[in-house]
Each structure stands twice: as C-alpha cells, then as structure tokens.
Here is the input.
Amino acid sequence: MNITEKCYIIYLLLGVPLTVWVGQTLHRNGRVFLIEAFHGNDDMADSVNHLLLVGFYLINVGYVLLGLPLGTKPETVQTAFEFLATKLGLVLLVLGAMHFFNMFNFDKMRKKARHSEAAAVPPPVR
Here is the structure.
C-alpha cells in the first residue's frame, strides 16, 4: 500500500466519524429549538430534526467523498501530513459552516415562533 492510499484511508477514517459526531450533536441539541419553534409539537419537531440530520449527512459525507481525489498526491511523509491537514481542515470548515447555517435557521424559527405566540396573546381587558 502506497502513501496516498494510506492517506485516503486515514482521511476517510477521520472525516466520516467527524461528520457523524457533529451531526449527532446538532440533532440532539437542536431538538429543543425545534420543539419551541413547533409550539411543543414533539412529533413534528422530531420529524423535522431527523430530516435535517439526513440532509446534513448527505451534504457532508458527499463533500468528504468528493474531496477524496482532489489535490496533489503525497509522495513523502511531510506532504502526506500536509495533504491530510488540508483535506481535514476543509472538512472541518464545511462542518462549521453547516453548524452556523443550522443555528441561524433554528434561531430564526424560534424567534418566529415566539413572535407568533406573542401576537396570539390578547391584550388585557380593562
């Protein structure tokens, strides 16, 4: 097995589990925001949360796989480290961008739910 093949294996063994870990973290902690956004409707929140997780995996695992052949193939140990650092760094940046995108949307949904709840409360009778 040559150095490029070893790099590919290491990249996949690190890139895919990182994606799964971030996805599970977002799934677990995003549920609270979705329950609030869907006015306590747990079933709807859980369904949307699951769909978001599937979409997250499709995009990010797809990115990891598409990034596999890109870049100059390493020929030395030094270039192997640089190759892996570049690829994993890009994966982490994409995961971070997806995290902020999800957080932005969760916050937007939460604010919209709070605004609609506040609008639904009738003014006090005098």
Notes: The helical segments are 3-37, 42-67, 77-120.
